[in-house]
Every structure is written in structure tokens, then in C-alpha cells.
Specification:
The protein is an all-beta fold and about 425 residues long. It has one helix spanning about 65-70; strands at about 5, 20, 35-45, 50-60, 75-80, 95-105, 120, 130-140, 145-155, 160-165, 180, 185-190, 195-200, 200-205, 210-215, 220-235, 240-255, 280, 280-285, 295, 300-310, 315-325, 330-335, 345, 360-375, 375-385, 395, 410, 415-425. The model has no long low-confidence stretch (mean pLDDT about 95).
């Protein structure tokens, strides 16, 4: 439930944004049954083969926006222009042009004197769920060395979305029938120099832009995740140990017509809002912040780590090798509409992973020597990070193609670094 509250009047224009109060908001209640079952069994008289199987259901966490966006006190503003008559660079009431509202966010300009919900919870809204099946096989082939394989399948259902309604509280939702193909497609130039034509949709004449939204479960939309993981583990014996894994994975989204309102291929937090049977991208910053251009998705990744105890000098040599497919680069083109819809970030290609960064490889080494003086221990070490000195591109500016900084490199793999260390214990 949302607690009641009060927002003070705007100190500059209290006549436009007076103080408003509201009571608590209730109605969000979830009941979930989450079965989980697992089985582990050993095969053979030597008990060296292990078989595992499990089924689990998980509920998604309740996101903060699902709560605070329904409050009348949520983030909102009205955008007006002003003429700085006295040159103090501060807007005074007599300088604000209230005859023209440039923009509004989170507030209905026709209902500024009352507490008003722009977002509300839909009836019957339920928690998103994930069903997971895992099958595994592990075999100790020789003493201290085991090989394994794990297969995972997940289906993610009941995603939440903000469904626009035409009349506040009426449930008369917008559908794809309210949109029409724009007469002129967007034309974007990709970093490789080729041009692409991007069809997109706009509201039909006479259909007002959406302003009120209902948080509902998205129909006709789900995601699937499939992976195979191969593992090898050699426990420390005969002066050496080794651990490695290779993961092959495929994470896709599936959407039908019932899960589409605006048919335009808009770049969203999963890569594309309407694209069917494409790779799901996990936007790390989705356009802002230090990781704003990172969209996580790798179809393969591996790691190999090990250590060897060098005889005579009794010094440990360790290594770590990590690699993965380069993350996707979902280039987008921004169009500005004049019908009140604002702007749309259109995905430049039909496939969310049509472009990718170079594959990443990193090799790290460590040399360590332990010395003992009665009850005092001294550990000396030398670490070498990114010994190959690769400077793989990790991130580019993908805010939008029609921007002067588009495709500029914003992050590289850290260069080779050496570190000397000493640790005293007693």
C-alpha cells in the first residue's frame, strides 16, 4: 500500500501548483504458490556418477516503480518558458509565459489542484514468475578429476507493463488499432556507412496521446532461456589444480499481437519492445550513467583457472583465463513527433544483436611465495592483469545514431597492470 501524504505548493507559481494532499492507496496484493523439487542420485557401484534434476518456480521482486509511480506525489513537473526581464537568471511569476505549456511529466495540467494518479494498479495484476528446470550429470573420471554438464531451461511469464488508457479509470486501453504506419520511414546511417529505412507508427488522426496508465501483466509476451554448461574440476593434488567451465546460452523474447500497442520497433530495456523471437538484452544503464551503453548478452562464455606449486623453490603459479562473446550494440535512431507523442528511439535493425562488440579475452597471472619465521608468516606476490594487453572495446555511445558523439568509444578493457604485494601474518 502507498501511504498518504502532502506536497507543498510551488513557491514561485502556487496558483498553478498549489499544495495537495491524498489518502493512502491500497489494492495491491499477491498470493503465490511456488513449488520446488529436487533429486540427486548416484549411479554405479563405485558411486562416481552423480545425476541431478530439479524444478523450481520463482516470483519476481516487486520493483520500486510499481509502487511509487502510483502515488500522486510521484516525480512530476510542468515545463514553461520564461523571459528573464531583470537578468537574474531566476524565473519570477511575471516572467513565466503560462499561456504555452511546453511539456508535462507525471501530472495532468488540467488537474493540478487535486491529488491525481497518473498510474494505477490494474485489477488482477499478479507477480511475474519464472519456471526453471535443471538437469545435471557429473562423473569422476579419475581420482580428483570430475567432468560435468548441466542443462537449464527457464520460462519467464507475466511481465509487468504500463498499459495506456484513453479515459482515466475506464480501462479503455489503447491498442495497435489506434496506430497507423507513418507515411515516411526514418532513414538512419549505421556506423559502417550503410543506410537503413526504419518504418514506424504514429497515432491515428483524432486519437489523443496517452496520458494515463494502468500497471498490468503483459499478455502475449514471455521469455525463454536455454543453456548448457560444461565443467571440469581437478582438486589440488600432485602439486596442481584446475577448474574450468564453458557456457552456451540462448535468451529470447516472444511477443504476439496481444502484447503490442505501438507497433514501432522501439529500443527498450530488453532490446526491442515489439520484436519477436530475438535475443533479450539486459540494459545496464539503458542510456545514462557510466554503463549507459552496456547491453548484456553473450551466447557463450568460458573461464579457466588453475595453480601449480613449483617444486624446490616452493612457489605457487596461478592463472585465470576469461572470455565471452562481445555484448550487443543496439543502435537506435530518434524521431521527434509533432502529434504530442514526443520522441521515439527506433531500433535500427530487426535483430537486437545484429551488431556486437569484439569478443573479450583476459589472461591474469599470479606468482606467490610463502615464507615462515617461527610464528610470523610473510607472503610475497606478483600479479599481472590482462597480460596480453588487449584493449577490447567494451562500450560505445549508442544513445542514438543522429547524435554527433554516436558510436564514440566510451570504455576500453583496462591495459596490462602489474601489482607487487606483501602480506604479514602472525
Amino acid at each position: 500500500a502507498i501511504q498518504g501524504g502532502t506536497v507543498a505548493a510551488n513557491s514561485t507559481v502556487p496558483n498553478i501548483l498549489p499544495s495537495v494532499s491524498w489518502n493512502g492507496i491500497s489494492g495491491l496484493k499477491w498470493h503465490n504458490i511456488d513449488p520446488r523439487i529436487g533429486l540427486t542420485y548416484t549411479l554405479g557401484a563405485d558411486k562416481r556418477t552423480l545425476v541431478r534434476a530439479s524444478y523450481s518456480r520463482y516470483d519476481d521482486q516487486l520493483g520500486g516503480a510499481t509502487l511509487y509511480s502510483t502515488s500522486p506525489g510521484a516525480y512530476n513537473y510542468l515545463y514553461y518558458y520564461f523571459n528573464d526581464l531583470n537578468g537574474d537568471k531566476i524565473a519570477q511569476p511575471n516572467e513565466i509565459d503560462t499561456s504555452f505549456l511546453a511539456n508535462s511529466v507525471g501530472i495532468d495540467p488540467n488537474k493540478t489542484t487535486v491529488a491525481n494518479q497518473i498510474y494505477r494498479w490494474g485489477p488482477g495484476m499478479k507477480a511475474p514468475t519464472t519456471d526453471e528446470v535443471v538437469l545435471g550429470l557429473e562423473r569422476e573420471v579419475v581420482t580428483d578429476l570430475s567432468l560435468g554438464v548441466n542443462g537449464t531451461y527457464r520460462k519467464l511469464n507475466d511481465f509487468l507493463w504500463n498499459q495506456p488508457e484513453k479515459t482515466q479509470g475506464a480501462g479503455d486501453y489503447y491498442t495497435s488499432a489506434d496506430y497507423v504506419l507513418n507515411s515516411t520511414p526514418a532513414v538512419a546511417t549505421l556506423p559502417n556507412g550503410s543506410q537503413v529505412s526504419i518504418p514506424y507508427y504514429v497515432l491515428k488522426p483524432g486519437v489523443a496521446p496517452p496520458f494515463y496508465y494502468v500497471i498490468n501483466n503483459r499478455p502475449g509476451y514471455y521469455q525463454t532461456y536455454r543453456s548448457l554448461e560444461f565443467t571440469a574440476t581437478k582438486r589440488m593434488s600432485s602439486r596442481w589444480m584446475l577448474r574450468g567451465n564453458l557456457t552456451l546460452q540462448d535468451w529470447k523474447q516472444h511477443v504476439s499481437s496481444s502484447g503490442i500497442i505501438d507497433p514501432s520497433p522501439i529500443r527498450g530495456t530488453t532490446g526491442c519492445t515489439v520484436c519477436n523471437n530475438v535475443e533479450v538484452l539486459q540494459g545496464s544503464g539503458t542510456g545514462s550513467g557510466a554503463k549507459g551503453g552496456v547491453y548484456i548478452n553473450s551466447k557463450w562464455a568460458y573461464n579457466l583457472t588453475g595453480a601449480y606449486q613449483i617444486p624446490v623453490i616452493e612457489t605457487s603459479l596461478g592463472f585465470n583465463v576469461t572470455g565471452r562473446q562481445g555484448y550487443a550494440i543496439p543502435y537506435a535512431y530518434r524521431v521527434t513527433l509533432t502529434d504530442g507523442e514526443g520522441q521515439k528511439l527506433l531500433l535500427a535493425e530487426n535483430q537486437t544483436d545484429a551488431f556486437r562488440h569484439p569478443n573479450l579475452t583476459e589472461v591474469d597471472l599470479r606468482l606467490q611465495k610463502d615464507l615462515h619465521f617461527q610464528r610470523v608468516g610473510l607472503t610475497l606476490s606478483v600479479d599481472a592483469f590482462n597480460i596480453l594487453n588487449d584493449q577490447t572495446v567494451l562500450q560505445r555511445d549508442v544513445t542514438r545514431l543522429n547524435r554527433s558523439t554516436s558510436n564514440n568509444i566510451t570504455e576500453l578493457q583496462s591495459p596490462r597492470v602489474f601489482r607487487l604485494g606483501a602480506r604479514l601474518s602472525f
